[in-house]
Amino acid sequence: MRWLVTGAGGMLGQDVVDTLRSRGADVVALDRAALDVTRPDAVEAAFAEHRPDLVVNCAAYTAVDDAETDEERALCVNADGPRLLARACAASGARLLHVSTDYVFSGTARTSPYPEDLPPAPRTAYGRTKLAGERAVLAELPQTSAVVRTAWLYGVHGRSFVRTMLDL
């Protein structure tokens, strides 16, 4: 099985690639320079060249605060990009694992973790754009996609809350 990891230059993408490779997986790691997920021609070319069986979408506009003033760009990366990936997966028969966030919720729930059936109610531009991406993936690829929501990413690579606290 051939894996294609988008956003492979970011913290999550690097760790996903490292983990898959440590398990002997056939992995194609594409960072933003190698694959701009917002460009249909680039997505089509990547699928034609690499022929993935499973795509892990780690590509995202993750500047949460900046999304408030640049929601159009965040929407392009967080919603249009996943839609293009889902369409390419549908056309090629690949499966898609799309990484999203708990920012799709209001942040006012009293239960932890959020139940899967809790209705989304994003209060930020970042949350709205990530929810739009989830919906695009599930609409384009309902049978062979999965959306995983996470919070507080941390890992070996890149900046994270944990690393910031350790550096302090």
List keywords for this structure.
globular; 5 strands; alpha/beta; Rossmann fold; 168 residues; 43% helix; 6 helices
Walk me through the structure.
This protein is α/β, with parallel strands linked by helices. The chain has a single domain (2-167), classed as 3-Layer(aba) Sandwich (Rossmann fold). Helices cover 43% and strands 16% of the residues. It contains six helices and five strands. It has helices at 11-22, 40-50, 64-67, 71-92, 125-140, 161-167, and strands at residues 2-6, 26-30, 54-57, 95-101, 145-150. A five-stranded parallel beta sheet has the order 2-1-3-4-5, sandwiched between helices. Helix 5 (125-140) links the parallel strand 4 and strand 5. Helix 2 (40-50) packs parallel to helix 4. The protein is globular. The model has no long low-confidence stretch (mean pLDDT 93).
Structural class: alpha/beta
Largest sheet: 5 strands, parallel
- The CATH architecture classification is 3-Layer(aba) Sandwich
Oligomer: single chain
Rg over C-alpha atoms, rounded to the nearest angstrom = 16 Å
Low-confidence stretches: none
